[in-house]
Design a protein that fits this description.
The protein is α+β, with helices and mostly antiparallel strands. It has one domain. It has five helices and eight strands, in the order E-H-E-E-H-E-E-E-E-H-H-H-E. Strands 1, 2, 3, 4, 5, 6, 7 and 8 form an eight-stranded mixed beta sheet that branches. A hairpin with a 5-residue loop joins strand 6 (100-106) and strand 7 (112-113). It is globular and about 50 Å long. The N and C termini lie close together (6 Å). The mean pLDDT is 90.
Length: 166
């Protein structure tokens, strides 16, 4: 992997049943092509659940591949980010049991970026309260509302770094 073909990001597993922890590590390892050992800690926002946070480095598109690899475990709450790399926009995936998958592009300052085609489609079909609801949906507000207590509970938790095998 040349320097121009390296992406990086962070995986936040916000809540995971203890029995699934090794399976999560195996799924992430499969996408990165290297052994993965996450540091699991208690998730204070949900009794009996664990959380882990890990930075990663790999090929562009790794965030999407990891998000897809973990999607089959419907009881997980997790987010995975990928920073912008040459030719690739930054992105974030947010996944919850109740809401499913939300994917968005992220600007250099960390704000959500919504493409003009999505905004034009919303403006062409929505009025009044529907417009506000549509903008809320484009911004992923429901995912933020559900995940925020789990994010706050993880502040100050240990972070490990994972690197993809070349």
């Amino acid at each position: 992997m040349t320097l121009s073909h390296v992406a990086s990001g962070v995986l936040f597993v916000h809540s995971c049943p203890p029995a699934l922890c090794p399976h999560i590590e195996w799924a992430v390892a499969s996408e990165l092509g290297t052994r993965v050992s996450l540091t699991w800690t208690a998730q204070p926002a949900e009794h009996g659940m664990l959380r882990a946070e890990s930075g990663w480095r790999g090929r562009p598109g790794t965030a999407g591949r990891i998000a897809a690899a973990l999607k089959s475990w419907s009881m997980l709450r997790y987010e995975i980010t990928e920073a912008a790399s040459p030719g690739n926009d930054a992105e974030r995936y947010s996944i919850t049991p109740a809401l499913g998958v939300y994917r968005t592009m992220i600007g250099a300052n960390g704000d959500i970026v919504i493409g003009e085609d999505r905004l034009r489609a919303l403006l062409a079909t929505a009025q009044g309260p529907q417009l506000a609801h549509g903008i809320d949906a484009l911004l992923g507000s429901a995912w933020d509302d559900e995940l925020e207590p789990f994010r706050e509970a993880g502040e100050g938790a240990p972070v490990t770094w994972l690197h993809q095998v070349v």
